[in-house]
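Re: the 276-residue chain
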Amino acid sequence: MKPPSKLARPDVFHPRIVLAGCPQLVSGDGDDDGVVDALRRRGLHAQWLSWDDPRTEAADLVILRAAWDYAERRDEFLAWTTRVRNLLNAPEVVAWDSDKRYLQDLAAAGVPTLTSHFFAPGETVRVPKGEVVVKPAVGAGSIGAGRFVDPAAARAHAAKLHADGRTVLIQPYDARVEAGETALVFLGGQQSHAFTKGPMLPPEGSPPHWTSQAPSPRSRWHRPNRTSRCGTSATRRSRRPAGIWASPPTNFSTPGSISSAVSAGTTGIRCCWNWS
């Protein structure tokens, strides 16, 4: 870890800032490369730590950026969020967003979402007609998610999730995702940029290609300029924990549709999508 830059005004309070990763990605997943150095050049105390590092609880500000193991350690993770002095986002927002049942709240508020059916362990699973996606209500990176045409196969997958004590979410498969999802990012109420994510879930009977090394998924992002809301574009890369992520055929993505991708952010500061 590099030492912080010399403070220009040592007599002025400088908050200790932590960008929170996870044990597999203590220094983040690549989305924030350069941020810590930029903060240090401005005389701020900033560093990366895994969210479960006890030193995070002494920081003046903790910013969630790459806590990708929250789904497997949700109770522990949510308890930690309440012990941090100042957390972005707020603990109650993180708790709400960490369970996809927030879709019910959005639908009740009039936000267009995909039809979503939730089944807790012990409840009878009803599979709607047509191709569906079956996944855990608490999850990330499409782990535990699958596409099904056969209702019996869908119910069998739901039974496996129930056996692990997980609430099941079933949604109709929206074929529009195959053309990509557009995620809109707003900072301070103003549009910052947008990016397109390609499909990840393969059709039923075609398992994803698992890798023993972290893939380098790509998504195309667009930053608005004066003449266009998506005027310039570039390719950005991300790093994910090795051995637990599917390597998509084209661009990194999560299943679902843009209409259901409204989120306050669990693993990071983001405005308009949820890692499914």
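Confidence is low (pLDDT under 50) at residues 209-276.
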